[in-house]
Amino acid sequence: MKPYPVHKDFSKLHFTVPLYSPVLPILQRITRLHYRLQQLPEGIDYHETTIVGHDGYPVPLEICSPALGNFMTPCIFLIHGGAFVLPAAAHHKHLMADYAVGCSAHVILVDYRLAPQYPYPYGLEDCFSAYNWILEHADELHIDARKIAICGDSAGGALAAGLTHLIRDRQLPAPQFCMLIYPVLDARCNTNSMKQFPDTPIWNAKLNKKMWKLYASHVQKSPVSSYMSPNEASAFHGLPAGYIEVNEYDCLRDEAIEYYHKLKNQGIDIKLVQTKGTIHGFEMNYESVYTQQLINKRIEYMKTQFAAV
Within 13 Å and on the Cβ side, how many CA atoms surround 67? Predict the structure, then answer.
C-alpha cells in the first residue's frame, strides 16, 4: 500500500476490510457486538421494532429521536454501508444520534439482509419494505410524511440511490431528498478513480470488485440491474433533490461525480460536496474535528431542506 497525502486525522486508518467469505460471519458478529456496545446520549428516545419484508422475512428497524413530545417531525431513513456484507458499524450509531439531535428528527435505521447469503435484490427489497412501512406508520410515529429523507453511505448509498429509482417506478410518494455519502453507484468499476486508487486504506478498487462478486455475480445484465447499479440506469427523471459527498482519495469518487452530473442534467436540485484529504470511511475517526465539520455540513443541509417545506 503506497502512502497517500491524506488529512492528518486519518493517517492512522491504514487497514483494509477483509472481504473473504470464510471470515465474513465472524466479522459480522464482531461488527454487531461493537455496534451494540456504543451508548446513545441522554435525551434520546430509542426503540427497536420488526416489520414484515416483501417475502415475509422479519426486517429489524431501530428508531431514535430526541424527546420531542407529540410534535410532527422530519424523518431520516438511514441505510448503513458495509460493502453489502457487514451490518451497521459503531460510527453509524453515533451518526443516528447526531442526525436526530441536529435535525430534531426521527432517525430510522434498517438492518437489511446481507450478502453473500442474501445477494441482490434482498437488501434493496428490505429497504423498500422499510420505506413503505415508514409511510404507512408516519402519523402514529409523529413523522411529517412531507419531510422524509433517505440517507445512505458507501454500499448504503447504492441502496439509497437504487431505492429512489424503485420508489419512482413503483409509484410510492417520493422522499423529500436523498443524501449519498461516498456512495457505491456503478458495478462496471471503470472510472478514472477506480484505476487511480487500487490500494487506498480501508477501501479500494480491488476490494470494490470483490464486493460486487459477493453481492451481484448472479445478476444478468437487464434493465432491473439499474436498481442495483444506479449509474447504469436509463432514466434519471423524477428523482428527488439530493446531496452527494465524495472523498478525495476514494476509488468511488468519480462514479458519484458522474451520477451527480446525470441528476443535474435532468434539472434536479443536487448538491455535490468534494471533501479534501479524505478516505473512504473516514468517520471511523469520529472524534476528528474535520470529521465533525463534515457531519455538521450534512446536518445543515438537511435542516435547510426540512425547513423549506
Answer: 5
Do residues 118 and 137 touch, judged by C-beta distance below 8 A?
A: no
Q: What is the residue range of 138's domain?
A: 8-307
Assign residue 96 the CATH number of its domain.
Answer: 3.40.50.1820
Q: pLDDT (tens digit, 9 = 90+) per residue, 254-277?
A: 999 999 999 999 999 999 999 999
Residues 247 and 277: their CA atoms lie apart, in Å, by 7
In which residue are the cell numbers 478513480 written? 193
Cβ pair 181, 246 in contact under 8 A: no
Residue 2 lies in a domain: no
Residue 137 covered by a domain: yes
What CA–CA distance (Å, rounded) separates 234 from 211?
Answer: 24
> Is residue 116 a part of any domain in this protein?
yes
Q: What are phi and psi of 149, to 5 degrees?
A: -115, 145
pLDDT band at 290 (very low <50, low <70, confident <90, very high): very high
Secondary structure (H, E, C), 196-235: HCCCCCECCHHHHHHHHHHHHCCCCCCHHHHHCCHHHCCC
Note the pLDDT of residue 225. 81
Residue 3 domain-assigned (yes or no): no
- Please name which of 170, 125, 167 lies closest in space to residue 148, comparing C-alpha atoms: 167
d(CA 33, CA 304): 35
Contact 139, 269 (CB under 8 A): no
Contact by Cβ (8 Å): 108, 63: yes
Do 257 and 189 form a contact (C-beta atoms < 8 A)? no
Q: Model pTM?
A: 0.96
Number of H helices, E strands in the chain: 9, 8
**How far, in Å, CA of 243 to CA of 282, rounded?**
18
Hunting for cell 492512522 — which residue is that? 12
On whether the CB atoms of residues 195 and 256 are closer than 8 A, the answer is no
Total domains present in the chain: 1
Nearest to 190 by CA among 254, 265, 278, 259: 254
* Rounded-to-integer distance, Cα 36 and Cα 162, Å: 28
Rounded to an integer, the average pLDDT of 128-148 is 97
